[in-house]
């Protein structure tokens, strides 16, 4: 099922909202478009492009950049892009219900012992005594869209602390950052390569970690159109193979430090072509290094975490209650864990 962008957006209207996995495709240089955010956590795709892993898998990949998760889901459904890595959102789930998209793997995950997403507050809120998530009752919490992953995370924090939050949709990550720095919103959560520099500037403060509230959270997933998942198996396997080689390189250099400092520096140089491109390398490097979180080997998918997220979206009335895991996920491509 291929949808144009208008139809894909209409379907969302009801929402508030692997190394060596396959041999290269026979038709070499198959052109595909891959969606991404300019986040360190999307480095698997960047590396696979830069080091020729997609090309070796028979794919000619063009990266297309977005500023939020839900527009990426629309682009997959409309055929504007072929594969993407992003968080689960209400829009993505609703498009899956319509037979437009499928989650086929996992990418970024929270892992104990590795700094993950941080919970931030504005300087004004911090000066007013909000130095722990338990003190956020009644405060405003920034999200890109209602039904976004930020909404899910904030709700899990509120539930655990027994508090109420006022969610403020601001559409783009940049807008959320601006609102937090200026004190227009009180709190937000974000990956460490953004959280730590913001906190270091003194404009915002870190008051907690997401993994304390959602251990083993599958932060982002790999997804594609339902048509690609069903009818383009070779291409989909080749995409996952190239992507997974990029993930392996990233984890090896940045988490396991197998190449020492030189390996880290080489990887930072590569990532800087896509992340913090408006900063000189010496200023971008600390943020890129601070953002290091493990990416799932071979795009393995934490199915328990995905189910928890789906159940929350359904319970909140953000997606249709009839949506099942079988509707959302095609588990035939990668190992499922959790």
UniProtKB/TrEMBL annotation:
Its main location: periplasm. GO terms for cellular component: periplasmic space. Residues 1-22 form the signal peptide. Transmembrane segments: none annotated. PROSITE patterns: TAT (PS51318). Pfam families: NMT1. The keyword Signal applies. Residues 40-249 form the SsuA/THI5-like domain. The keyword ATP-binding does not apply. GO terms for biological process: alkanesulfonate transmembrane transport. Belongs to the bacterial solute-binding protein SsuA/TauA family. This is ABC transporter substrate-binding protein. It comes from Antarcticimicrobium luteum.
